[in-house]
Amino acid sequence: MKTRQLVVALGICVLSTVALGGQTSRPWPPQKLSDGQPDVQGIWAATMAGSTSLTNPISGGEDFDQRVSGAEIKRPSRIIDPADGLLPYQPWAAARQKQEQKDYEHPTRPEHIDTQHRCLLSGIPRLYTIVPAYKIVQTPGQVMFIWDEYHAYRVIPLDGRPHVAANVKLWMGDARGHWEGNTLVVDTTNVRGARLTYIGDFYSENAHITERMTFVDANTMTYEATVTDSTVFTRPWTMRITHKRRPDDEVWENACWEGNVNPDVWLDANAK
Amino acid sequence: MRTSLLILVTLSLAHAAVGNAQTIPRTPDGKPDLSGIWQVMNTASWDLQDHAAQKGVPGGPGVVDGNDIPYKPEALAQKKKNYEQRATLDPETKCYLPGVPRITYMPFPFQIVQKPNELTILYEYVHTVRYIFANGTPHPKGPIEWWLGDSRGRWEADTLVVDVIHFNDQTWFDRAGNFHSDALHVVERYTLLDPDHINYAVTIEDAKVFTRPWNMNMILYRHKEKNFQLYEYECYGFDFEKLYPYPDLGAAR
Lengths: 272, 253
Fold this sequence. Notes:
The complex is a heterodimer. By secondary structure, chain A is of the alpha+beta class. Chain A has one domain. Chain A has helices at 3-19, 60-69, 91-105; strands spanning 42-46, 79-81, 134-139, 142-147, 153-157, 174-180, 183-189, 194-195, 202-203, 208-217, 220-228, 237-246. In chain A, the strands form 2 sheets. In chain A, strands 1, 2, 3, 4, 5, 6, 7, 10, 11 and 12 form a 10-stranded antiparallel β-sheet that branches. Chain A has a two-stranded antiparallel sheet with strand order 8-9. In chain A, strand 11 and strand 12 (237-246) form a beta hairpin. The longest helix of chain A has 17 residues, at 3-19. Chain A is globular. By secondary structure, chain B is of the alpha+beta class. Chain B has one domain (2-225): Calycin beta-barrel core domain (Lipocalin), CATH 2.40.128.20. Chain B has 3 helices and 9 strands; from the N terminus they run αβααββββββββ. In chain B, strands 1-2-3-4-5-6-7-8-9 form a 9-stranded mixed beta barrel. Chain B is globular and about 50 Å long. The chains are: A alpha+beta, B alpha+beta. The interface between A and B is large, with 45 and 44 residues.
């Protein structure tokens, strides 16, 4: 791994430590908003976060530690279905993921650079696995998720409107939601295909994502996403990650923009 | 003192818009409700001032009160240089966040999300997010250099007044090379004229670049199309769109 990537990983590790401060006390069960939605607004972030891997989701800091020490660190898989905790790739896709993992370690071409390092939108469900926090804002008929990083956001209408035309492909996909009690259920289509981790996991533009965000107490949300993509996988799979409420501080500008770093800095110098 | 008087005069000019208090939508706390998806219908993104069309550039009347931008002599020379080299120098081509007020009149829709103590504006262009804190708190102590500055809002009668400082000097006002320094101070005034139109008046103050404050004035139009929604405009500083998720997979091949 290149020095710059290590620095990024370390920086994220430090950030996550600082940000795990106190939580705001909120009523539970949640108050109802004027349109009947449970009020879950505020700032939230994933616990045990990091985009390294879904099947062995070590943090950026742990990734650094194991590269320095050579001792592998294991974490429970985020994949809860299938039961073996692995992504059910078709054979060609499994080979593709392994190749992409190698290319990520030794990038020689611009396409080996991860979308996050290019400041491009990470999409769904990856944005729910990153370390930086996000804000939930609710207004009548819609829920908005607004991330600190990448100035990414998604607006989820709750009015049952149809998805946009099938030929429209969006980095964030096209989301439609509804509440089942304290669970926000979101149906996302129209994705461009996306990278899911640094180690090359991916889904195609045919993926359909169903998310269930269950608010289990005032400060805890269980995030589950089921990905159905018959182009890449042999069967649907489901991941889970717990999110916690963070203090309601002002969110200040965090400008990550695609043109900020010349792509050459990411590539292995000896390969140019 | 003379500058202060001038600011007072220009601010009151910018404040001339008055909505119809009876017909505008209001939030439960009685404030005008700016929620919705809005977009300009002008050519300010290409040139703030009156301009005829050129290839690829729609012509149209400008948005600057009186049409003149009061550059200092050396700044005017810089503006002319910017214009000559706009194809390469315009920060828009580098995918920077476009600054305030330029983000407002980019030819893309944006959504205002209004809460009593905070307004959030979600812009389609480069998925820009902007928070306007309206809980009476002051600007954080600088110096801070942000692309969009620090926005603090307050209500003056039925007008949302947003004071914005803490900018960097890396953004322009338009594609014609109009520019500012990091001393930029922007005051925006959002006034609902009726349910579907906002008068958007802006005062620009930057003593390093301009001899006096000056104003822009334009209308924001509500999108009323059925099921209208923001899409997204990702900006590519390099020619990489086709490379994601992987070159031979995905929508952009």
